[in-house]
């Protein structure tokens, strides 16, 4: 069986690397013949630092589906079309918005250095922080520190564009991807089929991968995601690891 894991808030907490208890449980899954896949809002560049080195070659979906990687190579990226990119940049300029913008590998950032999202961006200096003006293709945009009435105004403007927008809990950020890009679209590029995998997630951007999963395990509580979850677990690493080990015990009936 294939197991697909969101990272932040699901098996990775407070931006820290996977804990030893989670790593051991994932290793036990692979030892029993299961495949482990990661699917995150992070670009591939920022997935790697929270994973142990021996998992860097695992299949990955990054940027909520905009990046797909396998065997340490990015095999697919989807960028904003030029006219859409220009309209997004106009919105950013008109409202003087702070942002994290990713190209295929490098990034542009104008948020504060102590913003929680900043510590997760390229901590191992694998990429370059570049001016937005010198960036060619844009794969993903995160708008930061949007407050009050401006939040709804920006949402309204984005709704007129062919893009996918995710909001994460009560954070004052908007996560923007090209149209028809989501985690399920990325998983399909890795060859996954409908109802062929177990999904673990915790937020609205996990919705499509839950809809197509054989079994879906929601970590914590999320109203919208809960409608598609077959199970729920507290955001407790020991309990999550316990559930993974229980899957291992069911190995004979779950293996292909």
Describe the secondary-structure layout.
Blueprint: E1 2-5, H1 20-31, E2 35-39, H2 44-47, E3 60-62, E4 67-70, E5 73-77, H3 82-94, E6 98-102, E7 107-109, E8 140-144, H4 148-159, E9 163-166, E10 174-178, H5 183-189, E11 197-201, H6 207-211, E12 215-219, H7 223-226, E13 231-233, H8 237-249, H9 251-254
Parallel strand pairs: 1-2, 1-11, 2-3, 11-12, 12-13
Antiparallel strand pairs: 3-4, 4-5, 6-7, 6-8, 8-10, 9-10
Helix pairs in contact: 1-8
Short overview:
With 256 residues, this protein is α/β, with parallel strands linked by helices.
3D structure, described in words:
Strand 2, helix 2 (44-47) and strand 3 form a beta-alpha-beta unit. With 256 residues, this protein is of the alpha/beta class. The strands form 2 sheets. Strands 5-4-3-2-1-11-12-13 form an 8-stranded mixed sheet. It folds into 2 domains: 2-77 and 182-254, Rossmann fold (3-Layer(aba) Sandwich); 82-178, Hypothetical Protein, Haloacid Dehalogenase-like Hydrolase, Chain: A, domain 2. Helix content is 29%, strand content 22%.
């Amino acid at each position: 069986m294939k197991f697909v894991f969101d990272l932040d808030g699901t098996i990775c907490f407070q931006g820290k690397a996977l804990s030893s208890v989670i790593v051991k449980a994932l290793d036990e899954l692979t030892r029993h013949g299961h495949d482990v896949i990661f699917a995150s809002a992070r670009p591939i560049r920022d997935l790697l630092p929270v994973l142990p080195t021996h998992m860097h070659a695992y299949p990955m979906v990054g940027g909520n589906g905009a990046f797909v990687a396998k065997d340490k190579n990015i095999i697919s990226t989807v960028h904003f079309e030029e006219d859409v990119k220009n309209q997004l940049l106009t919105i950013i300029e008109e409202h003087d918005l702070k942002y994290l913008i990713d190209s295929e590998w490098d990034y542009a950032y104008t948020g504060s250095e102590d913003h929680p999202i900043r510590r997760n961006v390229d901590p191992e200096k694998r990429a370059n922080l570049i001016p937005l003006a010198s960036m060619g293709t844009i794969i993903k945009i995160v708008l930061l520190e949007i407050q009050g009435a401006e939040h709804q105004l920006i949402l309204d403007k984005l709704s007129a564009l062919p893009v996918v927008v995710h909001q994460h809990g009560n954070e004052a950020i908007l996560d923007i991807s090209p149209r028809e890009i989501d985690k399920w679209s990325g998983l399909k590029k890795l060859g996954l089929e409908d109802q062929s995998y177990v999904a673990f997630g915790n937020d609205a951007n996990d919705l499509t991968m839950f809809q197509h999963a054989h079994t879906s395990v929601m970590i914590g509580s999320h109203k919208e995601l809960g409608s598609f979850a077959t199970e729920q677990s507290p955001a407790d690493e020991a309990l999550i690891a316990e559930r993974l080990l229980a899957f291992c015990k069911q190995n004979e009936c779950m293996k292909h």
